[in-house]
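P.,

For your records, the input lines for the assembly:
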Amino acid sequence: MAITKSQLPPFSVPPPPPTSIHSIFPSPPNPIKPGQILLIGSGPGHPSLLTIAAHRALTELADIVLADKLVPAAVLALIPSRVEVVIAKKFPGNADRAQQEMMERALKEARKGRCVVRLKQGDPAIYGRFGEEVLYFRNPPSRSPSTTTPAVDHPPLPPTLVIPGVSSALAAPTMFDIPCTQRGASTSFLITTPVGKGGKMLDMPKYERARTVVVLMGVARLRSVVKTLTGSGKDAGDYPPYLPIAIIERASMPDQRVVESTLEDIEHAMESAEVGAQRPPGMMVIGWSVSALWGDGNVDVLNEGDDGEGETLGKRASESTDILREASKAIEGEFREKNEQEMKQSEGDGVRWRVREGLASTWDMFNINSE
Amino acid sequence: MAITKSQLPPFSVPPPPPTSIHSIFPSPPNPIKPGQILLIGSGPGHPSLLTIAAHRALTELADIVLADKLVPAAVLALIPSRVEVVIAKKFPGNADRAQQEMMERALKEARKGRCVVRLKQGDPAIYGRFGEEVLYFRNPPSRSPSTTTPAVDHPPLPPTLVIPGVSSALAAPTMFDIPCTQRGASTSFLITTPVGKGGKMLDMPKYERARTVVVLMGVARLRSVVKTLTGSGKDAGDYPPYLPIAIIERASMPDQRVVESTLEDIEHAMESAEVGAQRPPGMMVIGWSVSALWGDGNVDVLNEGDDGEGETLGKRASESTDILREASKAIEGEFREKNEQEMKQSEGDGVRWRVREGLASTWDMFNINSE
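Structure tokens returned:
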């Protein structure tokens, strides 16, 4: 049933070079090329959730770091003082200009031969204008549009390297034992946002019983998001009002917090004295997975046969006949009651939410040094 | 427009302890508790995509590592030889038993006071029975069901710590410049699988023009997945046959590869002599984002007004009137032609796919030492 490491087939990677005590990295076989741009993510907040590659880029390779506004301060603190750090100052109405300025600055510095790190929060490729930057650096303008100096022929830059990171869309639920996928509660998950180009409201997805929905950049619009989700009709979501929702704030930071409730009670919860002031950045997780690991577990809402032969009720409910809808509601009702009980247990009778906050002390094991 | 690091507001994290040259970690303020279970992810493959926390768990904290079968060998190579390593031997029909065995072993070792690392591929909370393990370790059985020894009162274990990791669902597209979200091409993305409990086929999501769909664990069922997606009717997806799809194999490993084509040509591509043998593990990415960063960019399929006022065509198309459907098809047609041109450019006239493989040499900068 189990094999040991020595029984593994050989892997195609060459053996690593000898150890250095100063770094977990060997001396690189090819030093970094002049003008290299590295597009990296900071992870959700705790510096130990940086990838090793991103940590190396920040602490050993960068000559200049161009950071987005929401990059956690604890990550910025790791950057050695010899490295220039510039932080974008995005505010409503200014995002396009700040973005353009960062790209132009990165290009200018790379053309001087410096190693430029573009540092984004979370994973660099999730809602971060990653594509725009890749295209800009691939075919840069021959001169800055904001200057009047004549065009110069620049030698080509090395290809931009993008280093994936831990996205808060996945990490935040995990930090609070909310499984994005969970047998019996969620077979898929969707990452979306209500905020489109220019701040306009995007469509929200329809209810799928077997799906976890993660909503980024939506907490400031909680009321309209909930209204759209629970509404019925062509543009509304048809989500049941008793569906669990979690609002997770500052995931992986010392003051991280989750407020768990239902779609119909979450606004009340967020406005309560107990919850008090918001702690941005926040995100929403919606679906049965939110309560799946409460207590002894709450993972049978999909009601799958153990033999793997039965259809999921999620599928049957999508057929929309009245009988199946009723069966579906009855099963969801059991889970609703279980959830309400759990919320009351934590918060006192009559209160339909629960709040958890703070980082487990075990995370102290992973605090890391700066410089 | 930009502020410097020194102008930042103070952050609530205490300053890090003094530097150690042997490790990026300070001496931990609280040594790890006996019997601590750490549930961590390996990232997609390249060892530098481990988080710093996971690297520390493997190299400094673990007494025993219980690894899932697909954990990359290059990650296992980082584990010091003093640490016991056990690899689950899952095969079809045996997954439940292998899973149970790993959980029982973890519990047994933790009860001996050892630090147990449960190592999963990618992110620990994506399709990895994360929830089952959290519940099992939270309320463990007082004795192993597979032994006949009498029940013993065990002292409680420290709470299991789950450390988020980089999921291949997000990292694999990024490694090949495929943006999961991209203005003008994708405003949301969905992670799903066709494989349900007991191997049965799960429903596939319906076509949403503005959505990237990532399908994990589905390449072995490519034919039936494509058939379901492109079919019409109640259980089918209604995806246009010309929609771009990428099959990404062994992302971030030295022999990583992507095959990009359309839903109607992808099977042909995968069976071609040029592509040859598959390189598991693989995954699919489906949607306009697949071709969004080709050439100079291919990111206007959603046809949003620059003023942010216009409705997206994706929304209008969902209204399903014939006129809007035709308008939608006309725009998609432009992108189809642009994509076909790009595929022909790379692969010769008449061939409707393109293949890219290998890891950029810049990644050599991030090779890391074992021991």
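Two observations worth noting. The mean pLDDT of chain B is 86. Chain B has two domains: 33-143+157-166, 169-366.

Regards
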